[in-house]
Amino acid sequence: MESFKNFEKKNIEKILLDNFLDLMPPFYEMESSFLSGIYERYGDLEGGNIVIFFAKDLHLEILRKRELDLNFNLSLDEFWNNHKNIIQKKKKIITIAKSTGLPRETTRRKILSLIKAKHIKKTEKNTLFWEPDSKTKDSYIKTIEEEINSLSKFIFQQLKFFSLNIPISKIEKEIKNNYSFYWYHYLNTQLQYIKLWQVRFKDLEMLLIGLQTLIQSIRDLKNLSRLQNLDSFLLSKTIKSTASFDAKNAGINWLCLGIEAGNQEVRLDISKGKFKEVNIRHVVKLIGSSNINILGNYIFGFPNDTAETMQQTLDLALDLNTEHANFYPCQALPGSELYRTARENGWSLPDSFEEYAFLSYECKPLPTHYEIKPFAMKIYLCMVND
Fold first, then answer.
1. What are phi and psi of 328, to 5 degrees?
2. CA angle, residues 367, 193, 349, in degrees to nearest 5
3. With a threshold of 0.70, does the pTM exceed it?
4. What are the φ and ψ backbone dihedral angles of 368, each rounded to 5 degrees?
């Protein structure tokens, strides 16, 4: 039993949170692929979300067959026979609306459109149900296999952080062999995730656009780093000489520098010594000489910040006088070293995404020994006076 202790729920959560930034790219890829497929099949994500609700319930009814027969076949190969032998329960529009996060009237209109397009069917007794069209069986199986492959790749990435090297093919086989079991939970999770963004955005297409933009941005940064050994966000810690810096010729007109703090000890402490001491003034001068605009990021309220060190940060920002500057309160964002430190020390952390948002009314910065609100007013006055 000793070898299983590392797989307790709290340990799994900690490992996933600690590796949040590494897991996001494959998650974005998986989610974008899934939502793009839904969009292509059903014409819009709101209607597709309703189909997910029906499909999830169908898999649940198939899964319940295991309660009567432990050997009941839940595989993808057997799904076509299984779904034909299931009597789906009657569903109310208010229940569908609540589960998807859609307004009731929107849900009603979308269901009518789905019925017209034959994505949702209705019995003579007005019972709504979903089942894949027999004419599209091959297409359906192909789509599901692609989604299983995408999910398996994401699971494979997660397992690396648990020192488990399970081949993607083996993960795929396990999901296919117990298809309705895994797909019920997968669709249920998707339903909750999509509902979260439906409530926030009121427009699910924005979610898909956002995911695709994030994916492209990550690819661009990777390509830039691979070709030029350059990461714009870490530029202030990596530039050594003009010989290693030719970003202007690559078409880059703006660079965002994570200057963070004016006090070197504060910077070294929050990075755990990861970055060596650099002359940030030299870096800014170097970039400026290449006719590239600079956006400087500064953070106030690090755990070991004082009134004196924060004043040094403000003085540095005024002295550098970059084309643009952002001033942030310190946040221990999930996946960061500071987040891990905060959890280990039991510091108070946000309970919602709104509290992590810098520009949110609910913004909850990391607690410090020094009250930063008076200092925030000082920063504001400096900006106004300039």
1. -120, 150
2. 10
3. no
4. -130, 170
